[in-house]
Amino acid sequence: MKLRTRTILSMVLTVLLPIGLALAAYFTVSRTKADVGNTTQGQLYFSNTVDTLASYTDEDVKMLEGWSRTFPDNFLNKDIQRQTNEKLARKNSYLVVRVGTKIVYDGAAKGMHPDYSSLPMYGKLVNGDVLIIKLQTESGILKEINFGKEDGKRGQAFVITPAGSVVPGGEWVILYYIVWLIVIMLITGFIISMLLYRSTIKKVRQMQAATEDIREGNLETRIDVRGKDELSELAQSLERMRARLLADATQKLADEDSNRKFLSSITHDLKTPLTSIIGYSEGILDGIAADPERQRKYIRTIHSKAVDMNELLNELSEFSKLDLHEIPYHFEKINVNDYFDEFAEVTEEELSSDDADFSYKNTLDADTMMICDPAQIKRVLHNLVSNALKYCRVDERLQLKFTVSDAGDFIQASLEDNGKGISPDDLPHVFERLFRADKARNTGIRGSGIGLSIVKKIIEDHGGQIWVTSRLNEGSTFYFLLKKVSPDEETTDISD
Ligand code: ADP
To answer: What is the pTM of this model?
Structure first.
């Protein structure tokens, strides 16, 4: 969950949870029975209002109203007065009867008597009205039933429900709710902080441990944090950084290893002709080559070895220049067909004198364009052709097939020969610096083992790829890809 979503959610929770809890508290509190002593009146709750309290005696009041119309004398009957009062007492209420200004019955318990002077005058209240009056020690709710006596005197029956002991004082209610609110807010705050803390702390700890590991140089331990929130994304970036650092470190080790091997092969490749040069020159100096014919043979060998060394050093210097970007590329947008057609024409011409067959097939659209350094790509092609010539079979006429075709965003060129082929063991190494198949070393074919590594470097600097397939004693095919551009695409100068 995103940190933003989580913050919004916690905000909503901060608002909703207290509301929910407050509602729950409200219902709990409001459904809590009030302490009403030993009376067995109906349900009295803290949430009772004056109306609720008043409604408890509704039925009794209705009955008394019935009497006022049919048996008004019931109000003056001592037994009925007592029975009615007992009935009302079960609802925490009592009966008071007044005739004229004289109180004829007062069923109030001790301390609950009404202040008689505050009783309403006859006719002031209509049936159904509810009046709050002062009792001796508290307030009470009063309902009035009027009745007429046979002698014409007016009578009033009052049903009074003391209210003070049931409805708590307003300040207490407020205090009660404030305490609950504080408890609820503490609970909400605690829950939300715990949720936020628990969801973030684990990731923070993981990242802390990971950065410690990286600082110590231990790049092997994965940082495994899943999720889509910002912290997880940070951890995932950290993981990508760790993976990158590990890859770089591994690459560095591989490069160091390759440099060591390169140094050792270069030493060997320079030492071998140098040993011959020293040997043959000492032979001349020591007079071993006494006759002029032998001396000439020794000098020819010295010269040939020196030429080999010179060739190797030239190619090495070429490679290092390319590697250090000292040879700038001059990229141009050119028509592929024009370029390869011309190459095929020249090569066919050259190979005809070498006793070799050359065929050329191009299936590209006429207006296919590519961006390349024409001189460097020519160098690639010449190198591949000269290798095909060098590594051809003595008993077989060289057949060289040059094919150019479309490969989506790329142009694929391939050069197939029917030469000696490359063994499966040597095949993965032919593009390495100074690599020469053992066969090539031992057959006396001149070479430095640098050519194909230069070819690979040039193709890769063009954003392309190069690879080879081969079968020993059947031939090899070198493939390379070069990026295509649409004819109307702008040419950007990407020269180094
Ligand atoms: P060099 O030709 O100077 O030895 P390269 O880098 O051009 O160096 O080639 C590396 C090795 O790949 C060669 O020594 C040879 O063993 C092998 N090779 C390259 N091209 C061919 C080919 N067309 N047929 C057979 N083997 C080849």
So the answer is: 0.56
